[in-house]
Design a protein that fits this description.
With about 150 residues, the chain is an all-alpha fold. It has a single domain, classed as de novo design (two linked rop proteins), CATH 1.20.1440.130. The protein contains 5 helices and 2 strands. A hairpin with a 2-residue loop joins β1 and β2. α1 packs antiparallel against α3 and α3 packs antiparallel against α4.
Length: about 150
């Protein structure tokens, strides 16, 4: 399995996590299943909205974009593309930075942790690391063929 397939699978998991949180925020589901932490406190805080949209909605959009980009990168035409590798690193890097900011807010402003937010933060961090490894592999392959 290629690294980009792993990224696509992790992004798919992220879509489900973010969608679950979004459905709660939109009132479609009644309560969050949160065995550790204070998910409802986090998701009902003023910080659960960013630029007028629920943070979970931004997460769904991010993970859909990551899934599509990683899946596109598995196509034969793009499988050795350094540009796709770089785009994956930059895109996932933005996700890591946004997630780090949200985690900081949870710890130091909201004073509550949402286990689903932690799962999302771990997913995006693992995605970022895999994307870096993929980019280095593409760079090494390009140097060896030159």
């Amino acid at each position: 399995m290629t690294k980009r397939m792993i990224v696509a699978a992790l992004a798919l998991a992220g879509i489900f996590v973010a969608l679950y949180l979004l459905l709660y925020k939109l009132g479609t589901i009644g309560a969050l299943n949160c065995s550790v932490g204070s998910c409802e406190t986090v998701n009902t805080s003023k910080w659960a909205t960013f630029l007028g949209l629920p943070v979970a909605g931004w997460g769904v959009g991010f993970y859909i974009g990551m899934f599509a980009l990683a899946l596109m990168g598995t196509a034969e035409r793009f499988s050795q593309s350094r540009a796709v590798s770089s785009l994956l690193v930059y895109y996932s890097g933005v996700g890591v930075l946004f997630s780090a900011w949200l985690t900081w807010l949870e710890l130091f402003v909201i004073h509550a942790i949402c286990q689903w937010c932690v799962v999302s933060a771990v997913l995006v961090t693992v995605i970022f690391v895999i994307c870096i490894v993929d980019q280095r592999r593409e760079s090494a392959a390009e140097r060896s063929s030159a």
